[in-house]
UniProtKB/TrEMBL annotation:
This is Metal-dependent hydrolase. It comes from Streptomyces himastatinicus ATCC 53653. Residues 1-22 have a biased composition (Pro residues). InterPro entries: UTP_pyrophosphatase-like, YgjP-like_metallopeptidase. Residues 1-45 are annotated as: Disordered. Pfam families: YgjP-like.
Length: 205
């Protein structure tokens, strides 16, 4: 592993040695503020402060490294937060909210639940029943990734298959490409087996 700062989340008080550099990045609507410190040598940490995310990095870090580590820490915080949320009841409420937000409320799932028998799919749905199932392997992933899979399956309640009209619906969700990239990274890391005829394995069905 390269000798990069080791990520760890810590709600520690900041001790910047240079002015903070706010960025218009974030998880959801949260802004990100990067604070550099000459006292930090290797560690990177992050915490929530109201509607902002504070990322603390070593002063010597390059701009490219800063951008990379901000992304890493946002995903790490989101993954930690998603572990504390969304039981089956919350999944239904979340799906209904996402439908209203991105699909005009047209997708109305009858049930949404976690399942443990989907090892080659992130999600699936049965339009005739209005049921959506999410793989338990999504638990602990960033919230925007779970939301993407939910929106993906909600869109299938309206449009079967993965044609142009389906992807036009998905364009309404602003973090589609980032979520797909995250899932592709999981596959690349070898955490999801590739099956013959299953494509990349990164898309819900």
């Amino acid at each position: 592993m390269p000798a990069d700062p080791s990520p760890r989340t810590a709600p520690s008080p900041p001790s910047p040695s240079s002015p903070p550099s706010p960025q218009n990045r974030g998880s959801g609507t949260s802004a990100v503020e990067v604070r550099r410190s000459s006292r930090r040598r290797r560690t990177v940490s992050a915490y929530r402060e109201g509607d902002r995310t504070i990322v603390l990095i070593p002063a010597r870090m390059s701009e490219a490294e800063e951008q990379r580590w901000v992304g890493v820490m946002l995903d790490k915080l989101a993954a930690q937060e998603s572990k504390r949320m969304l039981g089956d009841t919350e999944l239904v409420a979340r799906a209904e909210w996402l439908s209203e937000q991105y699909l005009g409320g047209r997708a109305r799932p009858a049930s949404v639940r976690w399942v443990t028998n989907q090892n080659t799919r992130w999600g699936s749905c049965t339009p005739a029943e209005g049921s959506i199932r999410l793989s338990h392997r999504l638990k602990g992933m960033p919230e925007y990734v779970v939301d993407y899979v939910l929106v993906h399956e909600l869109a299938h309640l309206l449009v079967p298959g993965h044609g142009r009209r389906f992807w036009e619906l998905l364009e309404a969700y602003p973090r589609t490409e980032r979520a797909r990239g995250y899932l592709e990274g999981v596959v690349a890391a070898g955490r999801l087996p590739h099956l013959p005829g299953a494509g990349t394995g990164t898309e819900p069905d």
